[in-house]
Fold each of these.
Amino acid sequence: MSGGIRFDSVTVAYDGNVVLDSLDLTVEPGEVMALLGPSGSGKTTALRAVAGFVRPASGRVFLGGRDVTGLPPYARGIGMVVQQYALFPHMRVEENVAFGLKARKSPKVPRAEIRTRVAEALEMTGMAGYARRYPRELSGGQQQRVAIARALAIRPGVLLLDEPLSALDARLRSGMLAELARLHRELPDVTILYVTHDQVEALTLADRIAVMDSARLQACGTPRELYRAPGDEFTASFVGNANLLPVTVGSGGVAFGGGELKVDTEGAAPGARATLCVRPHLVGLGEGPNRLAGTVREIQWRGATHRLYVEVDGHRVIADLRELRDPPAHGDEVTLHFAPEDATLLAAGVGHD
Ligand SMILES: Nc1ncnc2c1ncn2[C@@H]1O[C@H](COP(=O)(O)OP(=O)(O)O)[C@@H](O)[C@H]1O
Ligand SMILES: [Mg+2]
């Protein structure tokens, strides 16, 4: 069974508090959609609305084109993995993985079929050798693989993952991230909704990212679109790092501090206040187009790169540079630059006072 997910103006409230506000979002069949946003922005709530654990105050949820808003969780054919594994401690790995299949009543899944599917799910998650163990005999990463195997055993059309890597340490996380990408290649028909507050996970795994902020969908697009041309300041700073400079729109450029910067101002009204977004890794050191002259306030050596914090007309500009042979020192006067095509003009927001 395969099919996409559609939120049609879904609102969820707890005690009159709206925590998900008229969410409209479509996840295409076989697509990986990341729900990215800070803690408390409503991501888990959106996921639970799909799973059927929370009833929307208004709006509809569709799975594979079917309205499932009134259906109980077990009737939705969904696999779900949450942050804290949630394996049954008294059951062996194979029993944990078989759980969802054994729970099926009509039609009942035959024993031989359960065995086949459990073996298949454990194989897919690299846990075939651990079938007889108990959860306490596994590492955190292995437990999470079992949780994923359990979700896959029912052969779900839709897989919901809620911060599945956040309980793991950094090294394990990046390994599991690659594993999840491989799993998706092996199961291209499964639609995945992946909740995370980690931009790296969203950028590496997702076909598209839905950015959430305070119960609302703020932006939705491919990682590349959101990174290259974020539509707003929140998205700019949440998907990648961003320098956000308060500017005033001129003709063919913007005024910043005492100077003029050449950038594309199409669609912006001359005289309007706006925010210029420039990614730190697209800022260069030395003379070039669009000069920014300032004082080095901090310099960090990060192995492959140097990060410079430069004060320009009272604003902080970050430049991530390939490791410098002869880095400037704290307090040095430097010139930075960026190419006009590497800047994006956003509607004014928090950058202005
Ligand atoms: N069962 C609940 N009862 C009351 N408030 C809740 C409940 N679940 C979540 N909330 C509130 O809803 C908001 C969104 O929560 P959640 O969807 O878990 O956010 P996220 O997953 O993005 O961190 C938060 O303010 C949270 O405190
Ligand atoms: Mg959450």
Amino acid sequence: MKILLVRPKFFSLVANLEPLGLEYLGGALREEGIPYEIWDEFQAPFALRFTRLRRKIRRERFTAVGFSVNANTADEVREKARALKAEFPRLTVLVGGPEAEVNYRDFCTEGVDFVCYDYGVETFRAMCASGFDPAAAAALPGLARRTGDGWVCNPPAPPVSNFTVQPDREPMRRSWRRNFIFGKGPHALVKASFSCPFRCAFCYCTMMNGGVYTQRPLSDVLADIEALEAERIWLVDDDFLLNRERVVEFCDLVLKRGVRKQFMAYARADFPAEHPDLLPLLYRAGFRDILVGLEAADDATLDAYHKETGRAVNEAAIRNLRAAGLVCNGLFVVSHAATREDFRNLLDFIRKNRLLWVVFGIFTPYKGSDAYEEYRDRLLTRKAKKLDGLHVTIRPEHMSKLMFYLRVVLLHAATYPKLLFRILRGTAYDTEKDGWW
Ligand code: SF4
């Protein structure tokens, strides 16, 4: 047996990071002594990706291929599975990853042999260790398998609260020279919790891990961080700043153990808004970037998103983070219901609150999210590659599609030149500065 773990490439100008999910699967295969390789398509050009993949499978005699699938690569993975099976009939094809975890039945398709929707690595590990034995597969939770009578989907696995293996970080080391986040440099990834206890309408992170929020022991998280050579760490929890006691404990451990790293993490706006006293501690522990889901500048849109915050909370979050020297990276979701005035208000909000780092996504009802149920009949497209927050997937209510795109472009045109200038000047992290210098 020899397994190729593949991360399909998709268009991204803003980041090129390690395939952490596959690195954990690689760690499980390493422990089992099963030969494998992680094939990260992000490290190669777009052109001829499938030709390279086929050639690799043939030349190096892989017996199984496992795809990690996101919402925007779902069609491509289904198509590649079908084509690979046609060319290599004895090849075992597996599908897993975030999209398969939430919508596993969508991958019970031609060319696929197994779909893994286990929340950790244990089902995958046991299945590979058994040599894809059908009897073993029948007993594994979180696994769909093709049988003579069609597909059989085993019950989902229980939620996980920790990793059971160490990741194989070799892919990160190999591609470190190409690793980057726009304007921020290279980052290694660490995950300290699973899912999110909130339920914003557009978000499908909250559906992960069976919809159950769990936290890893901080001692394990710190051990992961200390084992990394990287200076900058992105804590990729869907919401790292959630529990006050845990955040304090994390910072205390970092300081006590003398960990000298720079941290970036996601947060909801209500945490920095309600805990300004904690932010200097975060700064001392090495936090610099907080990615805040501000989402919108008006209460009505925030309510429609079920965000449980408000404009005033957003403003307090930005203010408090700035006062502590922390960079607030404002993440916005532009609604299909936005009017011309809403676009103007959003820009006014950004200017008034002196936000420098901003990211704009377009409201997308991902399958599995609450919004999908609400908008499934209004979807303009079902093409997976359009599910990336960059495309209009619901007809804008107050303008043409073209004007909507144009206004999103104008949002970027109005905000990014200054950010670029400040990055080039080396002052993009100076939260006291306001102007172009
Ligand atoms: S948007 Fe953030 S806070 Fe809301 S459900 Fe998703 S991860 Fe949780």
Amino acid sequence: MKIQPSDRFVHQAEGIWKRLNMWIDKARGRKKDIINLGIGCPDLRPATILTDRLSEFVKDTSLYGYPFSELELNNEISNWYKRRFNVDIDPIREVLHTIGAQEGLTNLPVSLLDSEDILLYPDPGYPLYGYLASFAYSRGYGYPLREENEYQIEFDRIPPDILKRSKLMIVNYPSNPLATTTTREALTQLVDFARRNDILIIYDNTYCEITFDGYVAPSILEIDGAKDIAVELHSFSKTYNLPGIRLGFFAGNREIIKILSDVKSNIDFGVFKPFQRLGAFALKSNEVREEVRKTVETYRRRRNIVVEQLKNCGIEFNVPKATFYIFAKLPKHIENDEEFVYNLVLNTGVVVLPGSSFGKNGQGHIRISLVQDENTISTAIEKINQFLTKC
Ligand SMILES: Cc1ncc(COP(=O)(O)O)c(C=O)c1O
């Protein structure tokens, strides 16, 4: 018997990561040194102050029961919202921790959508967004983010028949893969649009702390009326270099939080309590804040190196004010971004992601992740440059 994934999961099982790994193996077979700027996972290690605290928390045997929400984490999330965004958040009813942002992103559409409903998501956008509607047995519509409009949402481009059936919309700024940011004015328009059209919003603010050049990322919950329709999603993976502990959280609309909490209570019991304690500590500690500042400075320096070197490559890109990605447009004569990446990996060992893996509007681009040290990144861009001259 041939065992196959369900139709809902088959696209994911055959996705870009599988192909990329095959190409990497092939390049290794050709004795190429691999420099991986494809994956969006921090290479930086968590601060010692965090790992020291975690060692203490795991020794506390009272924390080994089913890990329902730790009030301490909820309180610190609420305090952090007040300090960081001047937003009041009820720690009991307006917060829910998740098993990484990814789990929240997956289970919320499943909890809210019926088969007639449509999920709106950005294209280009984080690849998981494109699968979520099918997980929820509903339909998805990738709203285009176009360079001509500085990758901002063009509400009037969403067809009326799609709009009528749209129940949930995912919005992500600072954006993966685009590295584009937003403004409070744009978020005000978004909240107005969502309220007028009875659409709920998941605002994925995973990268809000990785910003440069004086840009401070807003929260959608700063906008009047946002709590009526929105929840905001955060992750500990990128800000604190803790992708392995799988901790994220939602804050915002209490009805949405209640629904997800009820659904999750049948699926999982949350994240290991020592990890929740660590999250609470990370949010409140001044020393950790200083470590985050150093992390951001590291990404800023790497960004500057790539920006300087890419200028000579005949590649167009915007200088990002946030995230650790650079989304770059390949020269016009290169028609197929995936084929370009395949040849790049095989001939140079440098791995980036084809823009089309983020949706059809990503075609003709590559995403470069700043997840290697400065020298390695510099070597990789030099190799990309040399390879481009031969294309
Ligand atoms: C935009 C965006 N949202 C969510 C996630 C998931 O983060 P987590 O590690 O918390 O699941 C990622 C991870 O790359 C991301 O880029």
Amino acid sequence: MKFMEIKSKTPRIIDTHRKPLAVITGATSGIGYSFAVKFAKEGYDLLLIARDTQRLNQIEHDLSNNYNTKVYILTADLTKREALIKIESYLKNEAIDIDVLINNAGFGIHGAFQDTEINRELEMVDLQISTTLALTKMILPNMQKRKSGYILNVGSVYSFTPVPFQSVYGGCKSFLYSFSSSLAYETKKDGINVTLLCPGITKTEFRLRSKVGRYAQNINNKLSRNKQKGMEPDLVAEQGYKALMRGDRICIPGLTNRIFVQIATRLPTSFLNSALTLINNFRGVNPKNA
Ligand SMILES: NC(=O)c1ccc[n+]([C@@H]2O[C@H](COP(=O)([O-])OP(=O)(O)OC[C@H]3O[C@@H](n4cnc5c(N)ncnc54)[C@H](OP(=O)(O)O)[C@@H]3O)[C@@H](O)[C@H]2O)c1
């Protein structure tokens, strides 16, 4: 029965000689890296994409040795159109069937909109929106042909709220909510699961890279990474993986995050904006004049 296929835990693979393959963007750290480990443990081969070749090589070495999995790596700055063309020709040349696509790569920008850098914001839109659309468009037809596929987009609890002083980030994550929900509906008949994973604060390099407030420390400083509050990325990836395999449209990992979304979506927008500004002032991630 088709419905059961969508819900089944193991992807249906037409060529029984090959292992399923998962493509993960932003796999060199945080949630993307945790997804890479999770899929390797579950018996997948991997195609990992990020900018840092040295880290990609190390991850390739570790995962292929520890989990007897094939790890392909692709160095690409996904804010650049040329990178997407490179990926498209790579996929065409290799003629590989992709079973899972994890659109994860992302970064944050904090500040009042008039003070932030427009070029960086356009790069954010390119990474979070354009790249997600382009990769999905590249990979979806083959999944539809095979009547099987799994696509997970990494949104945020901010997919459900406006976010003052992170307005472009919040806008990107809201876009992903709308896009993922619509795509899930459209492709259900083709046996494809589409999940929006909506983490809250997670202990990754995200805030260190955004260089905000008290997190503006050296990215290589493991101590500052470990001092962060929030969910462990492994747990976020674990819950995202299960939701994707079950066919859940939305996955909000962690009880606190689920409560946050339940409350936030019931509040009037003007009140929510003030409340979020206060919370983020308290967390030290807003500019001083917020
Ligand atoms: N951490 C949180 O609290 C949190 C909460 C909600 C949602 N999220 C979302 O979770 C996703 C993953 O973030 P994370 O928290 O795991 O952060 P992270 O540790 O900073 O990881 C970000 C990943 O994205 C890659 N990346 C960044 N810019 C890229 C580019 N231009 N081209 C290709 N790859 C790029 C980075 O690799 P390279 O540097 O090697 O390119 C890295 O692997 C993001 O979409 C983020 O918005 C995070």
